[in-house]
Amino acid sequence: MSNLYISWLDYHQKIEYLAAKIYQSQWQFNQIVCLARGGLRVGDILSRIFKKPLAILATSSYGGIKGQEQGKMIIGKNLTMTTYRLGSHVLLADDLVDSGVSIDKSIAWLQDNYGQEIQELKTAVLWYKACSIFEPDYYVDYLPDNPWVHQPFEIYEQISAADLAFTLTKMNIDR
Questions:
Q1: What span, in angstroms and rounded, lies between the C-alpha atoms of 18 and 126?
Q2: pTM of the model
Q3: N or C: which end of the chain has fewer CB within 10 A?
Q4: pLDDT in tens, the chain (175 residues)
Q5: How far apart are CA 55 and CA 39, in angstroms?
Q6: In angstroms, rounded to a whole number, what is the distance separating the alpha carbons of residues 3 and 127?
Q7: CATH assignment of 3-170?
Q8: Where are the domains of the chain?
């Protein structure tokens, strides 16, 4: 498997490009739902750009060494949101579709739990891998060779708070 390394600058530019693609489509939505953890930053920034309420659905399917093994899909019990009701036109945001299983099961969960409120749902991701069983409505990069995408925040999965405190103390960066 090849690797694709993403810097913070590239990461944020891709979110901006995704926002532009959504805007240019002229699709009108009134709610953003992001899949946590990977889609948190994507959903947050889109929510700020489009001035739409953000809801969060916690999901987990990766674990193992370096978090690169896809396991059983776990979906949170509740949708976290600050609005009384979920919007009728929902943009579901995540960082990528790899196998497509996570986003597919998340859509099914939303339909099972909020189907009476959702009239239309579209999906938006930064990366769309060729091996995915699901094609998102909006994406920035299509990845035909299915690389492992190394996102800039993954470094925090490899360090502990104790290691970080030790390093900063050693560098004399106490604040």
A1: 7
A2: 0.88
A3: C
A4: 799 999 999 999 999 999 999 999 999 999 999 999 899 999 999 999 999 999 999 998 755 555 555 667 889 999 999 999 999 999 999 999 999 999 999 999 999 999 999 999 999 999 999 999 999 999 999 999 999 999 999 888 888 899 888 888 888 755 5
A5: 11
A6: 13
A7: 3.40.50.2020
A8: 3-170
